[in-house]
Design brief:
This protein is an alpha/beta fold and about 260 residues long. The chain is built from ten helices and seven strands.
Length: about 260
């Protein structure tokens, strides 16, 4: 099947413009970028897609072995780039898709002009000399809860991930997005996400990169964002005033401004 059909790829903006490829995070779909991408459509060729099992993608294309690691998702990104013949891509990845972009850029650096990593984390587990934000028991409990009661997990975790408790409608949107996913696919993606260790991949990337870090991010704390910045050879770090893990929804204007500043530099 065409990668464009498999991933429900949509293309907007200027056909001859530099491509901007937006990749959504765990449990979401391309609609999570709806407040950001239109700001770039007048100048760039904007490409959005859904990871397999989410949004309008073809869930029948899900393969447990392929998607047991983030490499499978990175291969999907490269397949989309190849089918659309995209080069000099500005890749914008949120949460786990930040590391998916890192893997894709490390594999085919000629495809990418810049990486924009929103709330990245190369490893969620704490380690010696490294703070990922979660202990082994934290991750084990998270995965067990997700696999045994996906709706209950979604209800509990969506507001934590989103932050911004004074704006409950944001957490509700994330919860509804989680609920649209197949629990089996979500569980496989969660294991690939929360058990990954991509710290060693950061130094392989030569693409100019921007790390966007939120305040009070329960999923990717500031120490993680600074770790990513320090190990990406050509990166810039911006601390947003936005809180939570999803500034594309909670603070789209600030997120858009930071991206625009970087791509125009």
């Amino acid at each position: 099947m065409s990668a464009l059909r498999r991933h429900n790829v949509t293309v907007h903006g200027t056909p001859t413009g530099q491509p901007m490829l937006f990749a959504h995070g765990f449990g979401c779909d391309q609609s999570m970028w709806r407040f950001v991408w239109p700001a770039f459509s007048g100048e760039y060729r904007v490409v959005l897609f859904d990871h397999v099992g989410y949004g309008g993608s073809d869930a029948a294309a899900f393969d447990r072995q392929r998607y047991s690691t983030l490499d499978g998702y990175a291969r999907d990104v490269l397949a989309i780039c190849a089918e659309l013949e995209l080069d000099d891509v500005i890749f914008v990845g949120h949460s786990v898709s930040a590391m998916i972009g890192v893997l894709a850029a490390a594999a085919q650096p000629e495809r990418f002009g810049r990486l924009i990593l929103v709330g990245p984390s190369p490893r969620y587990l704490d380690d010696a000399g490294y703070r990922g934000g979660f202990s082994e028991s934290d991750i084990a409990g998270l995965l067990e809860s997700l696999e045994s009661n996906y709706l209950g997990w979604s209800s509990a975790m969506a507001p934590v991930i989103m932050g911004n408790p004074d704006r409950p409608e944001l957490g509700e949107e994330l919860f509804n997005s989680f609920c649209r996913a197949d629990p089996e696919i979500a569980a496989t993606f969660a294991r690939a996400t929360f058990l990954a260790d991509n710290r060693g991949d950061l130094e392989r990337v030569r693409t100019r990169s921007l790390v966007l870090q939120c305040a009070d991010d329960a999923i990717a704390p500031e120490a993680v964002g600074r770790y990513v910045h320090e190990r990406l050879p050509r990166s810039r770090f911006i601390q947003l005033s936005a809180s939570g893990h999803c500034p594309n929804l909670s603070a789209p204007e600030e997120t858009t401004a930071a991206i625009r500043q970087f791509v125009g530099a």
